[in-house]
């Protein structure tokens, strides 16, 4: 009796690459057994400076891609032959940028973030982040590399992973740069090869030139230049034409601002003496003299 045929297994999806760092076959197999268990490996072949390992189960191949392998105390990155899962590091990330924003940016390229983002910290101050985060990311089937840098919320961030090569920042193609990408179309003029902020029709209000916006301006502009221009405009507008009627001036005698050299300052007239107050001394009658006169009259 024939056994029931099992569904075909795509062994290419179950295969991974481990870059050789002088490992022996025994060291590699023991490391894989420690992660996924014994009797899970179909083949292990060394070719062109790397080990190609094929596993029985696709889930095992995905697991060691997500976690990597520790071989003789040293971490080794594992890359899928068909399904590529990489450790992606991002540099220069401010603490206020959420992990979800980093994942969303990669998902825009068709990637799938398989793990949480791990935040690194300064060695001297373990409580302070140093702007580096990393996660395991499954690459899209049509791409093996991420661009060297991305921008989130006007923050320029470096992107790094193993065996990274330069690709188009727009579509991840290895055949052209972003400037040559056919999908890189300006939304302002509809032409290929530049973004809206770099469009030749855009005028910078900082340097008054065309081809970039003010926040991308690299020209050194004198901060007083605008004030001087405004001042010149005001002076030009305030000039009186020759044929304009002049205002009628009043006949006001000019007042000298200084005294002649031979003129002495005027002296103030002397003050008039104060009038003495009239004082009237009242003559008081002596009662003794009055009594004596009365007596003489009676005699």
Structure description:
GO terms for molecular function: double-stranded DNA binding; RNA binding; zinc ion binding. Pfam families: zf-CCHC (PF00098). With about 300 residues, this protein is an alpha+beta fold. Among the domains are: about 15-80, Alpha-Beta Plaits (2-Layer Sandwich), CATH 3.30.70.330; about 85-180, Alpha-Beta Plaits (2-Layer Sandwich), CATH 3.30.70; about 185-220, no CATH class. The protein is built from five helices and twelve strands. A hairpin with a 2-residue loop joins strand 11 (about 150) and strand 12. The longest helix is centred in the C-terminal third of the chain and has 14 residues, at about 225-240. It is elongated and about 175 Å long.
How far apart the termini lie comes to 194 Å
Q: Write out the CATH superfamily name of the domain at 85-178.
A: RRM (RNA recognition motif) domain
Question: Would you count the extended β strands for me?
Answer: 12
From N to C, what is the helix and strand string? Answer: EHEEHEEEEHEEEEEHH
Classification by helices and strands: alpha+beta
CATH topological fold name of the domain at 85-178: Alpha-Beta Plaits
Portion in beta strands: 15-25%
Instruction: Name the helicity range.
Output: 10-25%
Q: Specify the CATH architecture of the domain at 85-178.
A: 2-Layer Sandwich
Biggest sheet statistics: 6 strands, antiparallel
The count of helical stretches stands at 5
- Shape assignment: elongated
CATH class of the domain at 85-178: Alpha Beta
Output mean pLDDT: 77
The value of Rg in angstroms is 50 Å
Low-confidence stretches: 228-244, 246-253, 276-282
Domain CCHC-type: 186-201, 203-219
Protein name: Putative zinc finger CCHC domain-containing protein 10-like
Keywords: Metal-binding, Zinc, Zinc-finger
Region (Disordered): 218-299
């Amino acid at each position: 009796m024939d056994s029931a045929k099992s569904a075909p297994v795509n062994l290419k999806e179950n295969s991974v690459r481990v870059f050789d760092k002088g490992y022996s076959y025994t060291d590699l197999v023991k490391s894989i057994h420690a992660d996924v268990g014994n009797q899970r490996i179909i083949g292990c072949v060394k070719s062109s400076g790397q080990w190609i390992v094929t596993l029985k189960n696709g889930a095992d191949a995905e697991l060691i891609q997500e976690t990597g392998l520790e071989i003789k105390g040293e971490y080794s990155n594992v890359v899928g032959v068909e399904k590529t899962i990489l450790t992606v590091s991002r540099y220069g990330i401010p603490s206020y940028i959420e992990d979800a924003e980093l994942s969303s940016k990669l998902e825009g390229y068709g990637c799938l973030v398989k793990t949480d983002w791990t935040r690194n910290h300064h060695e001297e101050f373990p409580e302070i982040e140093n702007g580096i985060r990393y996660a395991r990311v499954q690459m899209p089937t049509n791409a093996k590399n991420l661009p060297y840098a991305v921008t989130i919320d006007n923050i320029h961030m470096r992107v790094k992973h193993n065996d990274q090569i330069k690709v188009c920042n727009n579509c991840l193609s290895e055949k052209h740069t972003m400037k040559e990408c056919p999908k890189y179309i300006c939304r302002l003029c509809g032409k290929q090869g530049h973004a809206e902020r770099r469009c030749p029709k855009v005028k910078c209000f900082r340097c008054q030139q065309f081809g970039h916006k003010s926040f991308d301006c690299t020209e050194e502009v004198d901060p007083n230049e605008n004030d001087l221009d405004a001042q010149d405009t005001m002076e030009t507008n305030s000039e009186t034409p020759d044929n304009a009627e002049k205002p009628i001036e009043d006949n006001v005698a000019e007042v000298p601002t200084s005294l002649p050299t031979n003129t002495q300052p005027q002296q103030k007239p002397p003050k008039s003496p104060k009038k003495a107050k009239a004082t009237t001394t009242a003559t008081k009658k002596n009662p003794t003299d009055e009594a004596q006169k009365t007596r003489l009259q009676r005699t």
